[in-house]
Design a protein that fits this description.
The protein has 453 residues and is an alpha/beta fold. The protein is built from 15 helices and 18 strands. The protein folds into two domains: 3-209 and 404-422, Aldehyde Dehydrogenase, Chain A, domain 1, CATH 3.40.605.10; 214-392, Aldehyde Dehydrogenase, Chain A, domain 2 (3-Layer(aba) Sandwich), CATH 3.40.309.10. It has a seven-stranded mixed sheet with strand order 10-13-14-9-8-15-16, with helices on both faces. β11 (307-308) and β12 form a beta hairpin. α9 crosses α10 (252-270). The radius of gyration is 25 Å and the shape is globular.
Length: 453
């Protein structure tokens, strides 16, 4: 079904046009121009699919993408440079360097929760690195799916960058073909399927997954600000964010004040009636809405829980059992479970038995606790006294570890992800050390041992 398209991509890549600096720069500029031109259509699609306000759409998706493109335009020349490395004495006389080359034809499979951002950001990295790209957006975000198809397919020739549509069946058919790289953003469950499919051709993959990212509070001096920043991270896109704080762990003496401050933050953000506030997003579809509502069965709701037209109000749940579904599955919605602990050692006891999260948020002014948490826990990223914001730092790179994913992207890391750094050794011919050749006598070995220790 897709073999003809893939063949066109391979032929175009073999023409070496995509390896040219000016070609890549022009492609990035064309993409940026197309996004700016279609900004209103993108916002409208995000509103129809997710109920996102135009302003939130710009801040969390469009603006982040434009910044990413600008980074690659500014730094592409330096990223493409051949990197000289040291050459050992055993290779004298010679020069060694790393030659960045594109991988070939890349398949990008993007999710529904940030359907513009998480489709275009990997595309930017793949273009910057000199690849051709086939992009498969999520069929769940139906309006954005169509916008992406028109935007990309009208901007680029189909043999260079092409959007293909479809559901699970079409995605499986795509994965039956041999790509040079696969970049997937989605759930760990589907990530395992992607990896299994890729193994048929030994295709390398980046998996941007998710998990239950904790927000841990320990003796925070400004609990009001802590609650505000957790509410911000939790309620962006109505909680449908892979790095949203999934649950909170807090000391008993801080619990009541945190609840009060969290409620006040919600009021400050969305007013008294967030369900009728156009700035508060909806859940993507009925299936996911019903999944979220089912989490609340038999839970102790201390705030919220109201619903209207696929919108679920910000909800706080006091965790009385760690074995319930809400503590076993990634929530991906505006429900915030709170676990009360007595000693900080309980935090480590809980985390060490869980999968490694995509993000870990620690709110404390205790420098020793900060150092210990970084040392004793593993996660894709750690943010101290805030949530979400590490995502926008193009100098950090973004990705998971273990069950939360493999590989990184954003900024320079995207260029590296979609490139192969070919090792080159260029030896001179004016000197040839005969010691390396057979026969390897005892006298030769004595000298070699001195050099190679």
């Amino acid at each position: 079904m897709y073999q003809e398209l893939l063949s066109k991509h391979q032929t175009f890549f073999q023409s070496n046009m995509t390896k040219n600096y000016h070609f890549r720069i022009q492609a990035l500029k064309s993409l940026k121009h197309a996004i700016i031109k279609n900004e209103e259509r993108i916002k409208e699609a995000l509103y129809l699919d997710l109920g996102k306000s135009y302003n939130e759409s710009y801040v969390t998706e469009i603006g982040v993408v434009l910044k990413e493109i600008s980074f690659h335009i500014k730094h592409l020349k330096s990223m493409m440079k051949i990197k000289k490395v040291k050459t050992p004495l055993t290779l004298f006389p010679a020069k060694s360097y790393l030659y960045p080359e594109p991988l070939g034809t890349v398949l990008v499979i993007s999710p529904w929760n940030y359907p513009f951002l998480l489709a275009i950001n990997p595309l930017v990295g793949a273009i910057s690195a000199g690849n051709t790209v086939i992009l498969k957006p999520s069929e769940v975000a139906t309006n954005m799916e169509r916008v992406l198809q028109e935007l990309i397919n009208e901007t680029f020739k189909e043999e260079y960058a092409k959007v293909v549509l479809g559901g699970v069946s079409e995605t499986n058919t795509l994965l039956d073909n041999k790509f040079d790289y696969i970049f997937f953003t989605g759930s760990p469950l589907v990530g395992k399927i992607i990896m299994e499919k890729a193994s048929k051709y030994l295709t390398p993959v980046t998996l941007e997954l998710g998990g239950k990212s904790p927000a841990i509070i320990y003796e925070s001096k400004d609990l009001r600000l802590t609650a505000k920043r957790i509410a911000y991270g939790k309620l962006l896109n109505a909680g449908q964010t892979c790095i949203a704080p999934d649950y909170v762990m807090i000391q008993k003496e801080s619990y009541n004040d945190f609840i009060d401050y969290y409620k006040q933050s919600i009021m400050d953000f969305y007013g008294k009636d967030c369900l009728n506030n156009n700035d508060y997003p909806k859940i993507i579809n009925k299936k996911h809405f019903e999944r979220l509502m089912s989490y609340l069965d038999n839970e102790e709701i201390v705030y919220g829980g109201e619903a209207l037209n696929n919108k679920l109000s910000p909800t706080v749940v006091k965790v009385n059992s760690l074995e319930t579904r809400i503590m076993q599955e990634e929530i991906f919605g505006p429900i915030l479970p709170i676990i009360i602990y007595d000693k900080f050692s309980e935090v480590y006891d809980y985390l060490r038995n869980k999968e490694k999260p995509l993000a870990l948020y620690l709110f404390t002014d205790n420098k020793k606790i900060v150092k210990d948490v970084i040392l004793k826990t593993s996660s894709g990223g750690v943010v101290i006294n805030d949530t979400i914001m590490h995502f926008v730092n193009t100098n950090l790179g973004f990705g998971g570890v273990g069950n939360s994913g493999m590989g990184k992207y954003h900024g320079g890391e995207s260029f590296k992800t979609f490139s192969h750094f070919k090792a080159i050794v260029n030896r001179k011919t004016w000197l040839d050390v005969k010691m390396r050749y057979h026969p390897l006598t005892d006298d030769k070995i004595k000298v070699i041992k001195k050099i190679m220790k």
